[in-house]
Design a protein that fits this description.
Protein name: alpha-amylase
Bound molecules: modified acarbose hexasaccharide, calcium ion
GO molecular function, one term: alpha-amylase activity
Strand content: 15-25%
Catalytic activity: Endohydrolysis of (1->4)-alpha-D-glucosidic linkages in polysaccharides containing three or more (1->4)-alpha-linked D-glucose units
CATH topology of the largest domain: TIM Barrel
CATH superfamily of the largest domain: Glycosidases
Largest sheet: 8 strands, parallel
GO biological process, one term: carbohydrate catabolic process
CATH architecture of the largest domain: Alpha-Beta Barrel
CATH class of the largest domain: Alpha Beta
Structural class: alpha/beta
Pfam families: A_amylase_dom_C, Alpha-amylase
């Protein structure tokens, strides 16, 4: 009894700080929708407010707008939202404004363009009321300054208000890791003064800050910007101090470079799979071979491949539709993104087939789509997310089961993960009918399986063999027909 009472007291005292902290394990089954806060939804609802991406200025999106469009996000099956960095930025905009949030000047104040403390708390509350998680982007590598390196007045920054806290300016040599960590990402027009994160004082300030921030706004997870530009021990202690799942932005396509970061941070964005994924699917002349190769390397090299973030677009890289308008190819790439191992991340606008290429044109305002829930990719994403969460609720082991590549050729890839068999093709929408045989799917001989994208059913034959017809370049996602009840997919 005494110990129970003590436990309850301790739990009550600790609840304010730790109750909502979400662990890596709690994130495994999640599916993330990434928004640039400024570009997703406006609180005043003005549906026609223009947003000129080329101008690189604020367009008026904010937390209140985001709250008002959570049905749209949830309707696609997402249960987590990654928002832009929340901290105060400089206000000058002669060379582009910090509408993206990566040019902070003050760790302890909010960027008021996005809303007040109450608005941000209201966003966290509304997400939690829906069973959703809040992921916040954070920057510990640098601050932002509206001028070049020589013009910086360090006293303007809070708390790192002297040049002593920063590395001296230098251009990064990407072949030298010390330079990657200690030189500046940009020294020109909008310089990014690079913090001495290896200094124990700087690191301690960051760690105290993040522990408080996570608690103050009930944050469930972090995306750590510029992870490869920060020394690894500082990343490790920062993730520990945060006490929630963090995914690091290690912007590098080589698994041998990217995977070792998992010794220091819970997860990393899966750049090694991103590059060959796009190459495989952006046109019918792509092939699957480097994708298969990098999947195998990631499985061999990363400590926990199921904690990586899988993505096919973000705000730094060309949108998929900038390569091709082919809807069948877009559906294949999204099916992979959501049904491959790891935590899927879809960047707002992908569901509306936005086609901006590089920064800043890939940052289109979502409200200009009218939040169209009839868009074909909106419905496609919803089906993929739905079968994934159904597979999770049917089988505890699904999420930690590695994907098995059961078949691949130049144009086709068949993935088996638990009860889900995903068959992908880069043949494109103009392709005719072909048949591919996938062996050893794990289905029983004679078992009926349904493609949840078309609702067509077929039976597995001996040894779980599936004879899969592909037509018009569309992906197929099979699940045992008898086990579909409750999924909301193909149930009648
Ligand atoms: C602005 C303009 C740009 C202009 C630039 C000078 O200023 O919009 O048009 O070119 C923020 C803003 C940006 C802004 C920058 C700089 O700040 O969002 O709009 O650009 O002021 C993160 C964020 C990103 C953010 C920052 C800065 C960092 O996601 O949105 O940018 O806080 C590097 C960093 C990476 C960073 C990215 C933008 O730059 O590592 O953290 N992203 C190579 C390098 C990478 C490099 C990448 C792109 O190029 O290795 O380190 O990323 O420059 C593969 C290789 C990769 C290789 C790629 C290209 O090819 O394996 O290693 O990446 O095969
Ligand atoms: Ca650095």
């Amino acid at each position: 009894m005494v110990s129970t009472a003590l436990f309850l007291l301790a739990a009550a005292a600790g609840s304010a700080r730790f109750a909502k902290a979400a662990t890596p394990d709690e994130w495994r089954s999640r599916s993330i929708y990434q928004v640039l806060t400024d570009r997703f939804a406006r609180g005043d609802g003005s549906p026609d407010a223009p947003c000129d991406t080329g101008a690189r200025k604020y367009c008026g999106g904010n937390y209140r707008g985001l709250i008002s469009q959570l049905d749209y996000i949830q309707g696609m099956g997402f249960d987590s939202v990654w928002i832009s960095p929340i901290t105060k930025q400089f206000e000058d905009d002669w060379n582009g404004a910090p509408y993206h949030g990566y040019w902070q000047t003050d760790l302890y104040a909010l960027n008021e363009h996005f809303g007040t403390e109450e608005d941000l708390r209201a966003l966290a509350d509304e997400l939690h009321a829906r069973g959703m998680f809040l992921m916040v982007d954070v920057v510990i590598n640098h601050n932002g300054w509206p001028g070049d390196a020589a013009s910086i007045d360090y006293s303007q920054f809070n708390p790192f208000n002297s040049s002593d806290y920063y590395h001296p300016p230098c251009e990064i040599n990407y072949d030298d890791q010390t330079s990657v960590e200690q030189c500046w990402l940009y020294t020109g027009a909008n310089a990014l003064p690079d913090l001495k994160t290896e200094d124990p004082h700087v690191s301690q300030v960051h760690n105290d800050w993040i522990a408080d921030l996570v608690s103050k706004y009930s944050i469930d997870g972090l995306r750590i910007d510029t992870t490869k530009h920060v020394d690894k021990p500082a990343i490790g202690s920062f993730n520990d101090a945060a006490g929630v799942y963090a995914v690091g932005e290690v912007y590098h396509g080589d698994p041998a470079y990217t995977c070792p970061y998992q010794d220091w941070v819970d997860g990393v964005l899966n750049f090694p799979v991103y590059y060959p994924l796009i190459d495989a699917f952006k046109s019918p002349s792509g092939t699957m071979w480097s994708l298969v190769d990098n999947i195998n390397k990631v499985f061999q090299t990363c400590n926990d491949p199921r904690l990586l973030g899988t993505f096919s677009e973000n705000h730094d890289i060309p949108r998929f539709a900038s390569y091709t308008q082919d809807l069948a190819l877009a559906k294949n790439v999204l099916a992979f993104t959501i049904l491959f191992d790891g935590i899927p991340i879809v960047y707002a606008g992908q569901e509306q087939q936005y086609s901006g290429d590089s920064d800043p044109y890939n940052r289109e305002a979502l409200w200009l789509s009218g939040f169209n829930t009839d868009a074909p990719l909106y419905k496609h994403i919803a089906a993929c997310n739905r079968i994934r969460s159904h597979a999770v609720s049917n089988d505890d082991a699904y999420i930690t089961t590695p994907t098995d590549i059961k078949y691949s050729d130049d144009h086709t890839l068949a993935l088996v993960k638990g009860a889900v068999t995903t068959v992908l093709t880069n043949a494109g929408a103009n392709a005719g009918e072909t048949t591919v045989t996938v062996e050893a799917t794990g289905y029983a001989s004679g078992e009926q399986v349904t493609d949840v994208l078309s609702c067509e059913s077929i039976a597995a034959s001996d040894g779980g063999r599936l004879s899969v017809t592909l037509n018009q370049g569309l992906p197929r996602v099979f699940f045992p027909t008898d086990a579909l009840a409750g999924s909301g997919l193909c149930e009648n």
